[in-house]
Amino acid sequence: MSQCLSVALDCMGGDYAPQEIVKGGILAAKDLGFKVFLVGDEAKITSLLKSEGELANPLLEVVHAEGVIGMHEPPSNVLRKKSSSLHVAGRLVREGRADALVSAGNTGAVLAVGKFIVGAQELVERPSIGVALPNPKGKTVLIDVGANVDSKPKHLVQFAIIGHTYAQEILGIENPRVGILSIGEEEGKGNELVKETYPLLKETGLNFLGNAEGRDIYSGKFDVIVCDGFVGNVVLKTSESLGLTVVQMIKEEIKKSFIAKLGAVLMMPAFNRFKKKADFSEYGGIPLLGAKKPVIITHGRANAKAIRNAIRVAGEFISHEFNRKLMENIERFTPEVKRTTVGSG
After folding, report:
1. The sheet that has 224-226: what strands, in order across it?
2. Which segments of the chain does DSSP mark as H helices, in order?
3. Strand partners, 64
4. Which of 45, 139, 181, 309 fits a disulfide with 227 by CB distance 3.0 to 4.6 angstroms?
């Protein structure tokens, strides 16, 4: 990347803060050449930099913040706690000192900062969270997975456009196949939200293939699947739990016999490749799509590697000029019937 990207890193959010977060910032500065604002308790961060031998690194700058938003605090608290590390990091982005925000903290609080401190991109009514889920052929973008839990048809249309842009510009899918999550593949199936959104999506000019069922999320049939954030979050959390349960069950079965243990040793390369595909630390984090500048939410259990990769993801959104292309796509794909309603609630 030609420019020196600057990232505001919330060092106090996450299960392993500030140690792993600071180490991730150091990795990003070393490996990626990014300027990293380390936001949080100055004494603790400085001590960690000293122990890592990075106290004089010009790409690492400590920005003191006194408060911390707890993982179980109401998200609205972050808007009142202006001295918290997350709020201070958000202001660095809003004021133009940093190009992106990365946090492993309270997801709801990060969303609040993204929406109300960093702010929404022009023409975007509701920023949304898109997650790229693995399938046998590549990845499927599921959007929204929790930023909005009471959406209207016009919002789902924007989610589809945002997901299309994500799949095309970040994942490199030329003409993403878009579907809307429903309980049957036939047109006319689904709740009122799905039924009202379906004809609007047909008018967009997107490569809309119709209804997607739950089985399609991981099949590779669609590149983008749109849903309300309430539904998407349930799907995402269920998928995470299922994945952990399957891994645990396999481990228990392997322990039961010598032959199974031997087979596991022989299968280890395949297991490692699968783990790399599914490991959140490889992906870094998920983006709040539609914010004025990249806001990357990474897992609460994020280690240094995950933080480094979350910062890399932020850099990808800037280098691919995601926001500019998103604005072009909103203008291009928003159906005429909906243009008159944009901004009306």
Report:
1. 60-64, 35-40, 6-10, 100-103, 295-297, 286-289, 128-135, 138-143, 224-226, 177-181, 207-212
2. 19-32, 42-51, 77-80, 85-94, 107-112, 153-165, 192-202, 229-254, 258-266, 268-278, 280-283, 304-319, 322-333, 336-339
3. 40
4. 181
Per-residue pLDDT tens over the stretch 97-148: 999 999 999 999 999 999 999 999 889 999 999 999 988 889 999 999 988 8
Q: Categorize the per-residue pLDDT at 336 as very low, low, confident or very high, splitting at 50, 70 and 90.
A: low
How many residues does this entry show for the chain? 345
189-196 own/partner pairs: CB under 8 Å, 24+ apart:
193/151, 193/152, 193/153, 193/156, 193/228, 196/153
Q: Which domains does the chain have, with CATH numbers?
A: 1-119 (3.40.718.10), 126-283+322-345 (3.40.718.10)
For 80, residues 6+ apart whose C-beta sits below 8 A from its C-beta are none
Going from the C-alpha of 70 to that of each of 169, 295, 304, 309, 326, the distances in angstroms are 34, 19, 20, 23, 33
Report the Cα 121 to chain-centroid distance in Å: 16
Burial of 344 (0-12, 13-18, 19+ CB in 10 A): exposed
